[in-house]
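Dear colleague,

Thank you for sharing your sequence with our group. We've completed the structure prediction you requested, and as agreed, I am returning the results in plain text so they can be pasted directly into your records. Please verify that the sequence below matches your submission; if there's any discrepancy, let me know and we will rerun it promptly.
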Amino acid sequence: MNLQEIQDLIKFVSKSGVSEVEIAQKDFKIIIKAAQKSRGADQPIYVQTAAPEAAPALAPVAVAPVAAVPVAAVPVAEDSKLITIKSPMIGTFYRSAGPEKASFVNVGDSISQGNTICIIEAMKLFNEIESEVSGRIVKVLVDDASPVEYDQPLFLVEPA
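Please find the predicted structure tokens below.
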């Protein structure tokens, strides 16, 4: 694991509200803990690492697809009817389930609450993102296979 991946994990813990992330590999183990469960941006994050001799019996980490993650929709502006669907996590944004597959949604498509609208890959896990609103897709704000940040706008939706 390189420094950039560790920094991305720290950002994930900081922004997502997760209290602890632990990763174990053959040659090391890393644990990232938030100081408090409901901390603000100024609260510290603790990182603990261990060499293989310090923790010889590390179990391998299983990677499996995660169930759908609901996304909170936020109104764009008070005078606007459009709602912004934002990213619930840091990762890579995908519009479809695979390179040869059709996009989950396109501009002009009608969506219902609970529909899968995209996938965000985070730490080798593919998270299906579901809509929290019903309406019509007005604009896709992110390119396919682009990195996204926590709370970054993904779609504009005209509510039904």
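Summary note from our side: Confidence is low (pLDDT under 50) at residues 37-41, 52-66.

Kind regards,
the structure core
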